[in-house]
Specification:
The chain has about 200 residues and is an all-alpha fold. About 80% of the residues lie in helices and about 0% in strands. The chain contains nine helices and no strands. It starts with a helix and ends with a helix. The model has no long low-confidence stretch (mean pLDDT about 85).
Length: about 200
């Protein structure tokens, strides 16, 4: 690799690392203080960079939330890939997804950040578009594991049910959370079999 290309590659990698650090820092602050209570100056200070440098990476908090949408899509990738690879209804794959998505959505950090993002979705159409792409992929993936008689509307209901159960399980530990998960799995299994 020529020296010029190597320098460009190293520089690009460092920029990507800094950008990822900013997004991670901003997400932590949004969880901690809330989206509207967090300023760009707060993000720059916590990230250990100048405010000007922050604006070199992001025009504003809306751009940071769009970057968080990309991170969310990456986090969902391992949950979606097996569903998307399924060529027919598969209750075991669906149950695995329900359990793993429940664990993710019942995490306090995930729930807090989701609440902040959902509130911003109503105010900022650009943010809504970014998260809608992930949502549509999630719906399509779950739909592919449902029996033929069920479609995207039912897939969205399954996803909403898991998210709601996850939110209700935030802060619950051990047996109480396990009971919720088992009830959720049983309910989804029965609902899908009815079709």
């Amino acid at each position: 690799m020529p020296e010029k290309d190597l320098k460009h590659s190293v520089r690009s990698e460092k920029l990507a690392e800094r950008r990822a650090h900013i997004v991670e820092t901003a997400a932590a602050l949004f969880i901690e203080k809330g989206f509207h209570q967090t300023g760009m100056r707060d993000i720059a200070g916590r990230a250990g960079i100048s405010l000007g440098n922050l604006y070199n990476h992001f025009k504003g908090k809306g751009d940071i939330i769009v970057a968080i949408a990309d991170v969310e899509a990456e986090e969902l990738e391992p949950l979606l890939r097996p569903l998307e690879a399924a060529c027919k209804a598969d209750p075991d794959l669906l149950a695995d997804f329900v359990e793993r998505y429940f664990q993710l959505t019942s995490s306090p950090a995930y729930a807090a950040l989701s609440a902040e993002i959902i509130a911003e979705l109503f105010r900022n159409p650009v943010v809504a578009v970014s998260f809608e792409a992930s949502r549509m992929r999630l719906i399509a993936a779950v739909s592919s594991c449902l029996p033929d008689a069920l479609g995207e509307a039912e897939a969205e209901l399954v996803i909403s049910l898991v998210e709601s159960a996850g939110l209700n399980a935030v802060g619950k530990k051990g047996p109480e959370k396990d009971i919720m998960l088992q009830a959720l799995l049983g309910f989804v299994e029965r609902a899908v079999k009815v079709a």
